[in-house]
Amino acid sequence: MTEAGAGSDAAAVATTAEKKGDCYILNGTKQWITNGGEAEVYTVIASVDRSKGARGAAAFILEKGMPGFEFGKKEDKMGIRASVTRELVFTDCKVPKENLLGREGLGFVVAMKTFDQSRPGVASQALGIAQGALDLTLEYVKERRQFGKSISSFQGVQFMLVDMATEIEAARALVYAAARMIDSGAKKISKDSAMAKLFTSDMAMKVTTDCVQLFGGYGYMRDYPIEKYMRDAKITQIYEGTNQIQRSVIAAHLIKQSTA
Ligand SMILES: Cc1cc2nc3c(=O)[nH]c(=O)nc-3n(C[C@H](O)[C@H](O)[C@H](O)COP(=O)(O)OP(=O)(O)OC[C@H]3O[C@@H](n4cnc5c(N)ncnc54)[C@H](O)[C@@H]3O)c2cc1C
User: Whose CA is closest to atom 6 on ligand 1?
Assistant: First the structure.
């Protein structure tokens, strides 16, 4: 979906898909695509009619190796460095009309329904990062000694650990609730899905920052992997829709529900 000029405003995609006989001809560049170049199959949102904005979008299934489909710049990222993020470049890329997913005009709907399902996935990623950081921190605070004692014996440290553990469990409950809702086949999941992603990613950023704090100066160095958890947590507040966008999604549903 994402392009240089179309991030939160996904309806602004400039990649075009022009119908020609039995094919669509795609032209444009997608940026920051997770697994770009590694994946064999891609879902691409392009515009069949730019004058219609979101209603002019369509979703296409593309395969690696299709003529006119190439990979561009590989990003050098702050975190999740084990995951490739890359540009996709389409130059007169011929896509058979059978590869249209849904109908013309439904591209934005396909994308939003996908986000409803995938946001709890990002929430799970954030939850795992937070839990992993806390596990490492618990080991460290028991070992690290200052003032002749283990730093885990200080109430100031204990209270931080307690807040982290409690917030992780609250987030876990929200993620599992959203996952159960999806598994039950429920249709209206946007709000719960966005809430799980919002709360868990904000929690992961706070928890990992506090974990670095409890490692003290060592937390700021690369001697321990704790700083990596903090860098990795940050992306969960940004992708699959930033947390400001999650708040907008939740607000729209809250207001709609209360007036229904
Ligand atoms: C590592 C990585 C992997 C990614 N993988 C993919 C991928 O596989 N596929 C894909 O399509 N995209 C992917 N993205 C893109 C990602 O989804 C976007 O970066 C994200 O949606 C935000 O868009 P933007 O970066 O253009 O920020 P912008 O939209 O420019 O936003 C900038 C700031 O303004 C705020 N803002 C914007 N609009 C509003 C508003 N209406 N109200 C309040 N605040 C607002 C944002 O919250 C943000 O803080 C990836 C990004 C990264 C960094």
Answer: 33
Ligand 1 pocket by Cβ (under 6 Å): 1-2, 7-8, 32-34, 77, 85, 235, 238-239, 241-242, 244-245, 248
One domain for residues 209 and 254: yes
My answer on whether 138 and 243 are in the same domain is yes
| pLDDT for 259 | 74
Residue 45 has what pLDDT?
98
* pLDDT, tens only, 99-130: 999 999 999 999 999 999 999 999 999 999 99
* Domain presence at residue 1: no
122 and 226 share one domain:
yes
Q: Are residues 97 and 112 in the same domain?
A: no
Pick from 83, 105, 127: which residue ends a domain? 105
Grade residue 227 by pLDDT with cuts at 50, 70 and 90: very high
CA-to-CA distance for 239 and 87, rounded, in angstroms?
16
Nearest atom of ligand 1 to the alpha carbon of 2:
11
Which of 105, 123, 148 delimits the end of a domain?
Answer: 105
pLDDT for the residue numbered 252: 96
45 vs 241: CA distance, rounded Å: 15
Active site residues: 240
What is the reported pTM?
Answer: 0.96
Distance between first and last Cα of the chain:
32
The sheet carrying 23-34 orders its strands as 69-74, 85-96, 23-34, 16-20, 41-47, 57-63, 100-101
Domain hosting 119: range is 108-259
